[in-house]
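Sanity check. The docking grid for zinc ion depends on where the pocket ends up, so I'm generating a full predicted complex first rather than guessing from homology. Inputs follow.
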Amino acid sequence: MAAAESMTTLGTEHPEWRPLLVVIEEALRETEHPRWTQCAPALERSERDGRPLLDGAVFNVAPGAVRRWLRDVLTVAAAAGTEVEPLAEAIKARRLDPLLLFETAVSQDVDRLDELARSHGDDRGVLVALAPSIAMPMLQACRRAWTERVPPAWAQPYCPICGGWPALAEIRGLDGERHLRCASCGGDWQTAWLRCPFCGEGDHEKLGSLVSPDSPARQTIEVCEGCRSYVKTITTLTPIRPEHVVMQDLATLVLDVTALEHGYRRPAAKGYGVTVRVVAASSRLGHLLGLRP
Ligand SMILES: [Zn+2]
Ligand SMILES: [Zn+2]
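Predicted complex below; grid placement will be based on this.
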């Protein structure tokens, strides 16, 4: 299903999600723009001892492009009724540096985002809610540029590219390989069967599955008694397109509700706390990259 169609279906089924869906839709549209691919830094090596490829990355971006992107997100969110005024005002009055906001969103550091939001009058968690969409074009570009550099034997529970927790697992194809998928960057890494991806528990007595009464047959929830976490699991013939993982995550929200009702949870905050830097590219470089401010 095309992204736009999926969005329309989700929006019809869940009108209360419209404010979030319109922002994700905008982020998916922006993700297609080549300007982000050009900003993904080259990697010097791929073996990183369990460090996601994003950790330590330095992004040279044209401040104008970032400002424009933030303005687009805030405009779309405001039109859908989200209260973005405190953030928009802080940027306009130059109290909030757009590059700092963008850097914090790309690092997916919820604590830093929260701090940034509160110090600029956003007490409703608007920035934390918008941040994944703000970061999406950059993170998806990193995934496109770096997929080949992911160590094939990646055995961590967090995304090898951006460090986020998996949004869901896929049991894929005729072989039934088990893959974890990241909604932020679209990352895809294989994982072992009958093992909790989060704590590594392999005792089958401590692993189980739940089925939501409202979900289709090919969707289940795998749970771990060791760490009380869960991962939504979808059986697929072909891989979910990287840009569509975020929509599959939303479309299977009923599974999250069932898991929470049974006392399971997704791991808190972030998988691997990455550090990234976003710096202003010189205008000449920006010009060469087609990123004129
Ligand atoms: Zn990721
Ligand atoms: Zn576990």
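Relevant for the grid: The chain has a mean pLDDT of 89.
Also worth noting: The longest helix spans residues 126-146.
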